[in-house]
Amino acid sequence: MISPFIIYGFFAFAFGAVVGSFLNVCIFRLPKRESVVFPPSHCTNCDYVIRWYDNIPILSYLFLKGKCRRCGEPISLQYPLVEFINGALTLALFLRFGPGFGFAVLFLFCSALVVVTFIDLEHQIIPDSITLPGIVTGFAVSFFIPGLGWLNSLLGILAGGGSLLLVAYGYQLIAKRDGMGGGDIKLLAMMGAFFGWKAILFIVFAASLLGSVIGVSLMLAQKKDATLAIPFGPYLASAALLYIFYGNRLIFWYLNMGR
């Protein structure tokens, strides 16, 4: 007999993957400022309207061998990748927190991070249509999350947005050019709204560490100098995920080093 926990886990992954299919639409259309509702999903090469049986997350990509049913145009691997990532994140959240209001809030937050990450990687922008509603949503749910509270959320918004704003302003004064976009500032403000001001310290530190290690490695690999443009949004998103799943343990470990 299959354990109910396994069944629930399967449905958590499947639900996340289905939502991931919609996230693909957001990733493709939001940078173009197109509607994510109309027109329905279609092949960008032949305009073939994708039927439901060709839109089953991950599986349809495998059945179609990564090609459009009508014209044979290759389908980007990004589509099943986003579906898998969102499904895996949903499963991880379910296993870590179980069903409930907290799970629903973190599911929305992590789904937004998936959209932000892929858009920033390709276009080096973070849409206001994700971060601004995210700030409002994070502040609204803070009234119902024990241990967070509206004041902590508000301070998180100010700390998140203000800290990166100061960094961006300072870099502009020293380097005489922009080094950080407003999208990163709003994204960190959104994270502060969901987690409070204390989380900002962890996220900024972890994102900066990840950015330094990966950024320097990319510059060395590509033989570029410090002017190489590297989007910071994915590092912030990765740091936020670290905070969700391991933040308390990492902070406890750090504070107790040397004792």
SSE blueprint:
Layout: H1 4-29, H2 59-63, H3 78-97, H4 101-123, H5 128-141, H6 149-175, H7 182-195, H8 197-222, H9 233-255
Helix pairs in contact: 1-3, 1-4, 3-4, 4-5, 4-9, 5-6, 5-7, 6-7, 6-8, 7-8, 8-9
Protein model, in words:
The protein has 259 residues and is mostly helical. Helices cover 69% and strands 0% of the residues. The chain contains nine helices and no strands. It has helices spanning 4-29, 59-63, 78-97, 101-123, 128-141, 149-175, 182-195, 197-222, 233-255.
Principal-axes shape call: globular
Describe the biggest sheet? none
Number of helix segments? 9
Proportion in β-strands? under 5%
As residue ranges, the low-confidence spans are: none
Would you count the extended β strands for me? 0
Q: How many whole angstroms does the radius of gyration measure?
A: 20 Å
Q: First CA to last CA: what distance? A: 48 Å
Structural class: mainly alpha
Task: Summarize the amount of helix as a percent range.
Answer: 55-70%
Order of helices and strands: HHHHHHHHH
In short:
By secondary structure, this protein is an all-alpha fold. The chain has helices at 4-29, 59-63, 78-97, 101-123, 128-141, 149-175, 182-195, 197-222, 233-255.
Task: Offer a few descriptive terms.
259 residues, 69% helix, mainly alpha
